Amino acid sequence: MDFAGAYTPDHFMFLLDGFYITLKVAFISIILSFIIGGIVGTLRYAEIPVLSKALAVVVETIRNLPLLLIIFFTYFALPEIGIDLGITLSAIAALTVFESAMLSEVIRSGLKSIEKGQIEAGRSSGLTYVQTLRYIVMPQALRRMVPPIVSQFISLLKDTSLAVVIALPELTHNAQIINGQKSTYIIPIFIMIAFMYFAVNYSLSLLARRLELKSA
User: Fold this and answer.
1) What letter would DSSP give residue 113?
2) Gyration radius of the chain over CA positions
3) How many C-beta atoms lie closer than 10 Å to residue 160's C-beta?
4) What pTM, to 2 d.p., does this model score?
5) What Cα–Cα distance (Å) separates residue 191 from each residue in 155, 195, 196, 198?
6) pLDDT tens for residues 103-146?
7) Of the candidates 25, 24, 26, 60, which has an alpha carbon nearest to the alpha carbon of residue 40?
């Protein structure tokens, strides 16, 4: 194990470049999936005839597909029908689609956890269904959803490493390039990227605990 050779400034900066791509792709995917998942989860909770059932079919289909397959589809299959997103956008699209399905179920379950009596009380006080959902149900549900939502975000950050299969220049991809230079770099480099993933994910876990305690 050549720690000195593996931990050169050039190698470290190369890994940081990859980690920047990892964080950028994860951040964009998190924002998009939270918006889309929130909309889909709320629509499913509202149980709108036909629409809710159609969304349920789509969500369950996506949730039961491997993320790797969705990445392959966005990068290799979409260009066949004239939609060429490129490497980065393909990764973001795949992660967003997959994570939106996961988050929609978290949000729907969180909304359903609120007692129906509170909804009835809101309606009887003169609030519309949308107002009841916005001012009474959603604020309480969001507090309960913080831990599972952050958990999904952590999973998404780790899942960005799967985009190495389409040569996204993220952290794992750059680590493999360094490992290819010399076999004695493999363990030191893997230790380094493991620490980088751990540092971010553990920080998110601590944030989730803090938010959970604050909202309790």
Assistant:
1) T
2) 21
3) 23
4) 0.89
5) 19, 6, 9, 10
6) 999 999 888 888 887 777 777 887 887 788 888 888 888 888 88
7) 60
